[in-house]
């Protein structure tokens, strides 16, 4: 079905393809990604963002697959490969603890972000804020969740241990019948570490934490300096 030379590229979004809070890629990057597709390669996204947050990006380029909500929702073309929301019982227990400790949170659903569990739609991820004093306690008491801290623990993304970017990427590669030896990942965050360990070539952005750079094959320039395009040319990908 697919030849051995075909490659599969997966990109984080914020501070990789776009500079926050902007939701648009620059023209040079769009052209470079389009060229990858014209050469017969596949390109996709792997992000903690939900589908609504990706709309502007998707309008600029037709991606072959989307790994959204840190791997809890995955779609290839029009085929849903993963649709795995957080278990309701575990979610309620977790939110009760957050409320008791007065920790602010946002619930990530497929198409919206809310503060209320009562609103329609399943919850796929949770963002908690100003939680640095409570992270250790939460990790020790909720083993079914994985915690990705940002900004020195001021912000933390929480997802089920049943889902991850790497698990989703393995499924995508199987779907397209492409070997992981032909996989390339670009990213900038802690939630990319498992994906960096999985893919054959891993490119960390200049602004990525040291923990990600340590497992990367290559470190490129920042998104403001068009790091993805620079790495594609430098590595001759």
From TrEMBL:
Its EC number is 3.1.3.-. One of its GO terms (cellular component) is cytosol. Keywords: Hydrolase. GO terms for molecular function: magnesium ion binding; phosphatase activity. Pfam families: Hydrolase_3. InterPro entries: HAD-like_sf (IPR036412), HAD-SF_hydro_IIB (IPR006379), HAD_sf (IPR023214). The keyword Cytoplasm does not apply. It is an enzyme of class 3 (hydrolase). It comes from the Bacteria. This is HAD family hydrolase. It comes from Capnocytophaga stomatis. The lineage of its organism: Bacteria, Pseudomonadati, Bacteroidota, Flavobacteriia, Flavobacteriales.
């Amino acid at each position: 079905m697919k030849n051995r030379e075909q490659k599969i590229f997966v990109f984080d979004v914020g501070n990789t393809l776009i500079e926050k809070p902007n939701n648009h890629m620059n023209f040079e990057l769009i052209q470079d990604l389009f060229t990858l597709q014209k050469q017969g390669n596949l390109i996709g996204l792997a992000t903690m963002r939900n589908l609504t947050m990706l709309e502007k990006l998707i309008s600029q380029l037709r991606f072959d697959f989307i790994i959204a909500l840190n791997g809890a929702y995955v779609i290839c073309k029009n085929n849903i490969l993963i649709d795995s929301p957080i278990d309701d019982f575990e979610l309620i227990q977790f939110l009760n603890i957050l409320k008791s400790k007065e920790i602010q949170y946002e619930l990530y659903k497929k198409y919206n972000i809310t503060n209320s569990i009562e609103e329609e739609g399943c919850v796929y991820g949770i963002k908690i804020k100003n939680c640095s004093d409570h992270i250790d306690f939460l990790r020790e008491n909720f083993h079914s969740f994985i915690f990705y801290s940002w900004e020195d623990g001021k912000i933390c993304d929480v997802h089920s241990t049943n889902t991850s970017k790497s698990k989703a990427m393995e499924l995508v590669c199987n779907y397209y019948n492409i070997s992981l030896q032909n996989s390339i990942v670009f990213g900038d965050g802690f939630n990319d570490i498992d994906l960096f360990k999985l893919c054959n070539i891993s490119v960390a952005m200049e602004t990525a934490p040291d923990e990600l750079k340590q497992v990367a094959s290559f470190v490129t320039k920042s998104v403001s300096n068009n790091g993805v395009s620079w790495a594609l040319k430098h590595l001759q990908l």
